[in-house]
Each structure stands twice: as structure tokens, then as C-alpha cells.
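Re: export button greyed out
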Amino acid sequence: MRALSSAWAEIAARPSRLVATVVAVVIGTGFACAALVFTATFHADLAARLSAQYSGADLVVGGVEEDSAATARTLAAVPVVADAEPLYSSYVAYSSNRAHGYLSLQLAPHDPRLRWAPLTEGRWPQGPSEIAVTASTSVAAGLPLGGTVTIDSPGADRTAPTSRPMTVVGIADVSSSALAGERMLAFAPAAAFPQLGVGYASQIAVLAQPGVTPSSLRAAVAAAAPGAPVRTVGEQATVDIEHYTGQTTALTTVLLGFAAIALLVASLVISNTFAILLAQRRRQIALLRCVGASRSQVRRQLLAEAGMVGAAGAVLGIAVGVAVGAVAASLTGLDSGGLAVPPLPVAAAGLTGMAVTLIAATSPLSRALRIAPLAALRPADFAEPRAVRRAGRLRVALGLVLLSGGGVLLGYGVVQGAVLVALPGGALSAVGVLLLTGSFLPPLLHAAARPGRGAGPVGRLAAANAVRNPRRAAATSTALVVGVALIVMFQVASASVGASIDQATADRYPVDVVVSGDGSALPGSLADGVRDTQGVSGALAVRGTSALAAVRAGDGTPTGPESGSGAGDPVTVVAVPDGAGQVVRGGLAALDSSTLSAPTALVPSWWVESGAVALGGTVTLTVDGRSQPFTVAVGRLTDVGVFAGSAVVVTQAALDRLTPSAPAVAVWGALAPNADAPSVMAAVNRLVADQPGLQVTGAAADRASLQSVLGTVTTVATGLLAVAVVIAIVGIGNTLGLAVAERTRESALLRALGLRRGQLRLMLALEAILLAAVGAAVGLLLGLGYGWAGAAATFTEIGRTLVLSVPWVRVAVVLAIAVAAGALASVLPARRAARIAPAEALAEE
Amino acid sequence: MSLDTAASTVAASAENLVKIYGQGPAAVRAVDGITVAFESGSFTAIMGASGSGKSTLMHCLAALDTPTSGRITVGGADITGLGDGELTRLRRDRIGFVFQSFNLLPTLTARQNIVLPLDLAGRDVDPVIFDALVSSLKIGRRLDHRPSELSGGEQQRVAIARALIASPDVIFADEPTGQLDTATGHSLLAYLRSCARELGRTVVMVTHDPIAAAYAQRAVLLADGRIAGEIAAPTPERLLGAIGELQGATV
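Workaround output, generated via the alternate export path:
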């Protein structure tokens, strides 16, 4: 009890000293709680979306193999059942006069109780040609109320025509969330589905007559549909969400990983703060020991202080984290399941925050406990006890061991491409580096401070002050080293991954942009349209025609190289356009055009691989009855483009002989060197939006999707890691603040001797900038090293070449922000310092 | 032996005490073989110039530092080889301290500072003793104030109350009046003397001020880590003379 009350007295005496520590704990704990709340809400939202269709039902019958409509009718005939509807949900293709693509088509229930989506305009569809869409679908697909859309069900049996024009009669309001997918959604009545060739609904919703007990309903339904699983809404939701639980668990794990990093950095700040505070209280602690407090009594009090700080930070952190998680979930539209706060994990996060505080305080605490009682009388001439020096040597030794051992593992993992070896090696070596920061950061700080000496009195003072307590300065900078290193590592790794995959993609697809269809003629203006697109350096129309290809089988009879049928296989013959060297990556050499002389045709590589025809053999192409033999060759170009059937590439002259006026069947375009692949792809896609059947592929398509994924991941990760950097900056401000409190008489003396307020503030800002700059620079070097090592190990393991790419601009921005933030952190302490009255220098102790 | 039979009346003693700081060529023999004993109920002043070893001697006697060689007893028990935990308990229960400055914990009130040793020991305060101390030191009105709200003299009086609250065997005072004005200092010293004479406490005071030392019943003079002289019933004049001789001898 005594420990708690005196700990409280100590904290209450000057609570402002501990604000930064509490802030660090709050941020770290809050991050973890926000992650937990966000993913739990995400999970709840997912569950709500998955179960939305049957949320109004009394029972859900699943696993129906045959005609769902028939089963539903059987169930509806059961006396206690009021209604049973098959919950169709199918992926269909749509085409309006503004856009085409795919959307999810669900049942528009007949019974109002099953209508889960609120209508905002119009009415629910009733006839088989009526459809309702969600508001976002209406906008994206260009389907206002009363508009028409053609729905086609791919994968359906193509013997019967299945595309149907339908009219939009209602617009529903369904909140859409990018994270939960399902942007395009429409509803059609039950009768529409069989006509689209969709007969299967995975679930049938059953509604009971009024007054029917759940158990009798279940019994009756089970009897009517033997063998089919019959579940309540809750049970079905649990089954459905299980499929996704792995993903949400993965998301939780990743986010908690970032939270752990934030807590690690927070622990560095906490440890440093306690070290400074306890050093400032040396005389006090020594006096306690003098008067007879045993080491364990002092330890109990100090632990109580740390515990109170940790508890306060944890409680606040939980509150902040829940709020942030709720806001994040609602901003990303994930709130259809309501806010979910998992109590046990959140409490565990709070306890972790408190535990981290206590653990971080251990080292400064044990140093404080070694203060001899005599220090109360002679604080000045007390050398560090031997035990502390020994601990320092131990730390250095351990750090060297971990660094070298981890480095060896990491090197081996990188060279041999074993990520499982490189990862722990990297982690061990990183811990080693952290242990050694106390040894190599002070000399770096000294070196960095040297220019300050020539910069006038303020610079000299700032330089001297920054390095006067090297261990403390090193500890402060270390937090920033960790934060910056992680961000840079991430940026370098993802940029390298992106560049490497770009390279591999370019090797695989010699053409950046390919617009192609089913082999029918393209509109003449398309090539010009693509050429005029921003970011496209050149585009050519590729002429071609449909043809039949035949090779000689072993017995001499003509057969199709793919199907083996005697009539030959339908292929699309295209000719390399003149000037193709401008749009094909690698120039004409990539076309293997040396092998593409008049009688040669480039055939799909699998024709040769499957043995249908041999290199140098003959393939006969027939167009409108005219046949021509060609010598078989293989090149990179034949595996490009999307056509109905395979593509065979010949020279322009050969094509003209086959069919004199072949139209353009594809467009090849090249991206300008610094073009932004995603925006070019979007522009070209807009060009072909009104032409169903046309697709845009090519290297740029792959690069665009990769870049956008990588871009999102990197931005999110950087944002999450920025939290750790914020904590580190808080640490810098904290150290400065405590130093200012320590140097009150000094600052007063300086002011008395003539230093202006502004100069004093500048002095502190320079100190902060120095700490931040050195920390950021070391972090940059470490991030570059580890980022490269990580990417290299991964790529060697998967057998691809790594292209090292450093996003210098982004990295420079990170550094600039870190240094500026450091300067910003000095503002509050500097104001406090500037307020000291010069007369305080003359006051007696 | 005289030392044995007198053991019950010797509150603290040192026997051939040697204390060396530092190592090798930089070693300093702060105390170079001192044998001294302090009787129960006596008020002794240890005097000397700075560097004479008087503070070091007190530190060793007060279980704040461990001697390089020699023997220390407190309350009749040999404390020379005791470990840190035992020395700590000794300081808490059997020894009281008054320093020149920084005596009190700034975050505790006067009352809390006074009962701190008992608090640490987990013992209850005897209200009779507490009230007697507080009233005799005239600090009854200031008990709930923090040290920053007390004058120098009041702070020292609170420190003395703390030193006495656990009824220790011996009280060590290191220049207790150094920061005080003459009048306050005199009343403090008078109080210490009455503690010894009337209450039977043992007080050992380290000082360089002959006027302060004159309040003691005996003055032990130190020079260069050794006892250079003893004066019973000291007066300021005799003390000044003795110091002058010492300084003359070293010149």
C-alpha cells in the first residue's frame, strides 16, 4: 500500500513529465485495439452481407442439388410453411448502352419479409423482364430507372439463347464497401433465372405460417426435404462466414503485426523516459535508501509508478482504439453488421500495453536501484557502479554476437534463396543492431554535430548539448531509426518487387497494350483512338482474318493441330504490321522476324510442344477456300492477344495473298517510358467500353493491376508504420522536454548572459533536428539494406531475377518529414525554456 | 576488558578504520587508521578542514559506506561485514540522519517525511512520541506542508524529527546548520544538545564551524585522515586555537 501511495504522490507532483510516456502507451495500445475492432467489425459486416439474403427467413435449407424451383415449390406446399423461395445468386454479364461487364444477380423475393435491400426508387421487379439494381450499380453501369440492360449468363448451356433484355424498375440502397466486394448487384424475380439458364440456388429461404413453433417448422421442413441441411439464419451465417474466417484472421494477424511494431517503438520511448526521469531523481532515491528503504521497497515504488502510467495509458488506449476502429470501419463502409468490439482481445491488448510499460521500465529501474545511498550526499562525484558498466559491456557483446550470427544467416538466405533462413537471420541481426545503437550512434551524433560548431554560438551550443549525454541521445534516436527503417524497407521491397515483376511481365508480353476481340473487324478509328491516348507512344492496327489451320498427321491425312478433326481448326491469322518495331518491346528483334520470312508462320508454342507439328514442318492455312502452306516456326509474338481460337502470325505479304483486304482485328500499342500504366489502361478501357467482346490485355494490363495492388498495400503499410514514427517523434519531444527541465539554471544563465528567447528556441530546434536527422539517416541505411535483402531472398527462392528499385523520391519525402517532425517536436519544450526568467540563475539551490 | 564492559554504553565506535578511494596512483587514503568511540547520551563534534576525512569517517560509522579495513560497531553490534540489506535495516531502525541540505523528499508532506523510517519498517507511529517531538521542535503547524513551502530552518527541524522518530541508537548530523542563519542554527544546536543531555540520545555531528562544535561535550579533531586531537568541554576559543595549531603544523 505504501508503494502505491508514494508512487501516486510522485506522479501527482509533476504529472507533465509522464505525459509523453502515457501518449506512447496510448498510441501503441490504441493501434492494437483499433486493429481488433476494425477486423471484428469487418467480420461482422461480412457476416451481415453473406447472410443478408436469408436474414428475413425463419429457416434456411441448403445443399439442394436439383432444380431449386421445384424443391421450393415442394417446401411451400408444406402446411406450416407460408412461403419458400430459392435464393438465386448468380454472376452474369451485363451490357447497357453505356458500359458492359459483370454483376451479381440475386433473387428479388416475392415475400416482402425476405426483401433485405431497402428500395429508394421505383418498385420491386415482378415480371421476368424486370430488374432492380443497387444505386452504385445504377451509376456505374449507366442504368437509370426505366433503362434497359441485356443480361447474359456465361457458362450456361449455349444451345439456347440466354441473353435477355430487362428493364430497370427499382433502385435499392445497399451500402457498398470496396473491402467487401460486391459493387455491382441487381435483383430479378424468380421466373427470370431459369430463362437465363440458372436453375440452381444454393439456399432456399423458408417462412413459417403465423403461430408455428420453430421446432415443428424444422421437423416439417426436414421431412419435406430429406437429406438437405436445415439451419436457422444464425447457424447458416456461421457456416457461410467460416469460409472467410481464414481471411479475416489473416487480416487481424497482419494488422496486429503492425501494432506490435508500434508497441516496440513505444517501449523504446518508455524505457528512455524512465531512464531520464530516474536519473533526475538520483538524489531522491539515494535519500530514500539512506533513510532505510530497502532495494525491494524502492523497486516496489518504482514499479508501482510504471504500473500506474501503463494502466492509465492502456485504459485511454482502449478508448481511443475502439473509437479509431469504429471510424475506420464506417469510413470504409463496413458497418452493415454494426460495431463489433471483441471484449477479451481488446482487454488483452490493454494488458499488453501495460505489460510493455512495465517491461520497458525494467532496465532503467534496475539501474536506479543500484544507486548507492551515499549519492544523496555527494551526487556529483559518483562514477557509474561497476555493475552498470559490466551490463553495458554485456550488451555490446550480445549485440555483436547477434549481429554477426544473424548477418551470416541472412547472407546465406539471400544467396541461397531461402526465405525461411533469411527471415530469422534478419530479425536476429536487427536485434543486434538495436543493442549496438548505444555504441555507434553517439559517434555519429558527434560527427553530425561538428558542422554546428562553425555555425555561430547557437549552433555551437546546440551541438554541444546534443552530445553531452550520448547514451540518452542514442536511446532517443533509436526509436526513430526503427520507424524509418521499417518504412524504407517496405518501400524498397515493394518497389523492387514491382519493378521485378514488371520486368518479367515485359519479357513475357512483348506488347504493352493489346486490344483484340473474337477475330471480327475492329472499328477503323480504334487504332487512332489508342494512339491518341495520353501515355501511349504509338499504336498500330493489326490486320488479320479467320482461317482454318491443318497439319499433316502421322499417316498423312490433314488434321487440325488442336482438335485433330479433319476439317482443321479455326484460327485467327494476323500479320505483323509495318512499323511494328515501334510498338513491340525489344524492337523487331523480339519478333524473331529473321525467322518470319514470306513462307513462315509463327504458330502457338503448344502446337509444337504437344507434338501436333514439328518446327520446320508445314501448316496449311485456308481462307475462303484458298489454301497456302507455311513453314512452322515459334516466336514470342504468337502468345499475345486474345482471339477466338489461337493466333498464327504471318508476314503482311502472306496475309495479303490469303485474303487481299483483311481488316484490322487488333490494335497494338506501346506505352511511353514514364507512362502511368493504370491510367492508360483505364483510358483505353473507356475507348472500348461500348464494344462488347473487346478486351484490353498486354503487358500494361498486368502492370496496371500489379501497380495498383502494390500501391495500395504500400500506402496502407506506410500509413500503419507511420504510427511508429509518430511515437518516435513524441519520444524526441519528450527527451527535449525533460532535458529542458534539467537545464533550468543553465538556460537562465544563458538568458542572463544575453541569449535571446528566439535563439534559445532555435538552439533546441537544432538539437531536435540533429537527433531526428541522424536517426532517420541510420534508419534509411538499415531500411535499404534489409529491404534489398528481403526482396533478394524472396526472388531467388522463387527463381526470378530481382530488379532493385529504390523509390528515391518517396524515401526522400520520408526523411524530410522525419526531420521536420523532429523540429516540430522541439516547439513545446522550447517555449517552456524560453519562459525561464534569467533571475533564476542567481537563485540559491 | 574496558571495551567489553563499556560495550553497553558505547553507541558507536570505529577501530583502526581505514578507507581508501580510487586505485593505484590515484588512490586516496581518506581515513587512515582511526579508533574512536562514542558513549551513549553524548554529543560529540568531529571537526576538521575539508579533506580531513571527517565526512568519510561519518559515512562509515553511519553504515553508508563500507570500510576498506577496520571494525565498526553500532549499538554494540559489529556491523563491519554486513551486507547491503542488513545495513539498510540498520539505517532504518537504529540510525538517524540530518544532512546539510536536501534532507526531505520533495513530494511528501512534513508529516510523511517525519514518519518515513517507520513507514518503511511497517511500524505504527506512537502518537505520544510524535506529538512530543513535533511540539518540542515547534513544527506542529507546518505538518501538512511540502518541503518547498517550508523555510530552511523548518526543513532542518523536520529532518531532526525524522531522525528521532524511530528512537535510534545514534544520530549523525553532517553540517546541519550550514545553510541556516545564526539564530536558527543556534536553536537547532541547542535542541541537539538537549536531546543528548536530557533525552539520553547519542549525537555525532560533523562540522567545520567552531561555534557549532562548542555546543558538543567533546570535540574530536581530524587531520589527514587521522585523529589529531580531542578537546573535552570545548569552547570556541580553544577550538580556534587547536585548529590554528593544526594548520600551522601543516604549513
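Chain B touches chain A through 29 residues (CB under 8 Å). The button fix ships in the next patch.
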